[in-house]
Amino acid sequence: MAAMYEPPAETLNPDALAWDAQGLLPAIVQDAATGQVLMLAYMSRESLQRSLESGETWFWSRSRRELWHKGATSGNTQRIIEIRADCDADTLLVRVAPAGPACHTGRVSCFYRALAGQG
């Protein structure tokens, strides 16, 4: 059965997003063509603004405490197709056209390991 696509019924101003206490939102990055989840990162207000202005993904590195442009060193950029907010406006879904693997390991997706003990 094919996945159902539901177009956004409304738009949301970025100022209405529910930022956490650190001023961040989780951002799930998905390949717009395949639907595969590529990675999870965090966006700050500034990284979201840069993403909207540039059309490519920018994130906030919690470990380095700085902005980072995905693909700046690797060349594996992500062109944004659309950004959606969830029903609580506290998580973003960033649909992209990737120009290479999303994971720093060279894998297409960061979600390549299955947990042991399933089924």
Give a structural overview.
This protein has 1 helix and 6 strands. With 119 residues, the protein is mostly beta strands. It has a 4-stranded mixed β-sheet with strand order 2-1-6-5, with helices on one face. The chain has a two-stranded antiparallel ribbon with strand order 3-4. It starts with 23 loop residues before the first strand and ends in a 21-residue tail after the last strand. The model has no long low-confidence stretch (mean pLDDT 94).
Largest sheet: 4 strands, mixed
Q: Could you tell me the mean pLDDT?
A: 94
Structural class: mainly beta
Question: Count of helices?
Answer: 1
Which overall shape is indicated by the principal axes computed on the Cα atoms?
globular
Q: What portion of residues is helical?
A: under 10%
Low-pLDDT parts are: none
Note the gap between the termini: 23 Å
Q: Which sequence of strands runs across the widest sheet? A: 2-1-6-5
Order of helices and strands: EEHEEEE
Rg, nearest Å = 15 Å
Strand fraction band?
25-35%
Kindly state the number of beta strands: 6
What are its keywords?
119 residues; mainly beta; two-stranded antiparallel sheet; 1 helix; globular
Describe how the helices and strands are arranged.
Layout: E1 24-31, E2 37-44, H1 45-54, E3 58-61, E4 66-69, E5 78-85, E6 92-98
Parallel strand pairs: 1-6
Antiparallel strand pairs: 1-2, 3-4, 5-6
